Amino acid sequence: MIKLHDLEFEPFISEGEITEAIDRISGELNQKYKHEKPVFLGVLNGSFMFASEVIKRFEGDCEVSFVKLGSYEGTETTGNVKTLIGLNQELEGRQVILLEDIVDTGNTLVEIDEILKKAKVKDYKVATLFFKPEAYKKNVPVEFKGLEIPNKFIVGFGLDYDGLGRNLTQVYKRKENEMTNLVLFGPPGAGKGTQATILKDKYQLVHISTGDVFRFNIKNQTELGLSAKSYMDKGQLVPDEVTINMLKAEVEKNADAKGFIFDGFPRTEAQAEALSEYLESRGTKVDAMIALEVEDEILVERLLERGKTSGRPDDANENVVKNRIKVYYNETAILKNYYQKKDRYFGVNGVGSIEEITERLSGVIDQLMK
């Protein structure tokens, strides 16, 4: 176990496993390119250790540059232009081997792909020491992969946490916290608020309602609250960055919690990705999206009945009620698909007594906590 800054990391990939992966990749590169006189491009900062080991093993002639993705202001028509800082060679007509320490989101690869195509290279291939198939959703091919790994936060062998850990000769992963984190969904009238209150007490989880968080920050005129209000006053949507920063603050206030119930967030796939990345950085994850499922006719009936005493005008008009339910399904369809792909979606029958529904939800949560 090691500690870097405020985080603890545990051994994950040994030096021997890394060496075997590099030997295999180097063998494949030698077989295909040792007579091609390729240009190796090591992508900084992380690839310096991997690149040096591959280049040492290369048996043919080659050229080497260590590059970093940068940008500069072009003309009025070109705008912000991406470039490779540190490139020393003319690449037109050349065979290029791009050496990456890790491929996860693939955002950098997409940018470099465009640059290399504009440079009219003969061909280029991507070789990476670590590859996260769960995180990679881009179309740029990755031909040479050392080790496929889960979507964990890792350090070592060129990878860092806030500047530390690059020099480690084996790889460590962020020590995972024993937490249970749930995204709780349910259409208007499904009883989500009631169940969230019961579940947070039963499992000692912290309930984070996006609506409550917004109201607190705006009422108390926090920096984030003022930022959110400035968009809302203009009738604009609050950017994801502001919302996720509010949720981060709530999580960090409860750093010792046994887990969280996220209520009202995420609403989009981009928000789900942002939440996933943030929780991963803290050594945990979203364990499940649990959705209360209730037939529309029952929801309409419940809300109209509630409207007789709640005083809420949006509970009193049948057309408004039906539209709210439609909006809910439109919003959650994408998220249902997102979490289903990760085998983390659980639909629970939301019809019955409060106790019966709690029992069904508890059955899912108990299974997750085993």
Describe the structure.
- This protein is α/β, with parallel strands linked by helices and 370 residues long.
- It has two domains: 2-174, Rossmann fold, CATH 3.40.50; 180-368, P-loop containing nucleotide triphosphate hydrolases (Rossmann fold, 3-Layer(aba) Sandwich), CATH 3.40.50.300.
- The protein has eleven helices and 15 strands.
- It has helices at residues 15-33, 48-57, 107-118, 192-203, 210-219, 223-233, 240-253, 269-281, 296-310, 318-341, 354-368; strands at 2-4, 7-13, 39-43, 63-73, 80-85, 95-103, 123-131, 144-148, 154-155, 171-174, 180-185, 206-209, 259-263, 288-293, 345-349.
- It has a six-stranded mixed β-sheet, sandwiched between helices.
- Helix 3 (107-118) links the parallel strand 6 (95-103) and strand 7.
List keywords for this structure.
370 residues, 2 domains, five-stranded parallel beta sheet, Rossmann fold, alpha/beta, elongated, six-stranded mixed beta sheet, single chain, 42% helix, 15 strands
Number of strands: 15
Taking all residues together, what is the mean pLDDT?
90
CATH architecture field of the largest domain: 3-Layer(aba) Sandwich
Our Rg estimate from Cα atoms comes to 25 Å
Percentage beta strand: 15-25%
Outline type: elongated
> What's the end-to-end separation, in Å?
25 Å
In percent, how helical is the residue content?
40-55%
Count of helical segments?
11
Q: Briefly note the structural class of the backbone.
A: alpha/beta
- SSE sequence, one letter per element: EEHEHEEEHEEEEEHEHHHEHEHHEH
CATH topology of the largest domain: Rossmann fold
Total domains, how many?
2
Give me the side-by-side strand order of the main sheet: 5-4-3-6-7-8
By CATH reckoning, the class of the largest domain would read Alpha Beta
In CATH, what is the homologous superfamily of the largest domain? P-loop containing nucleotide triphosphate hydrolases
Low-confidence stretches are 74-78
Largest sheet: 6 strands, mixed
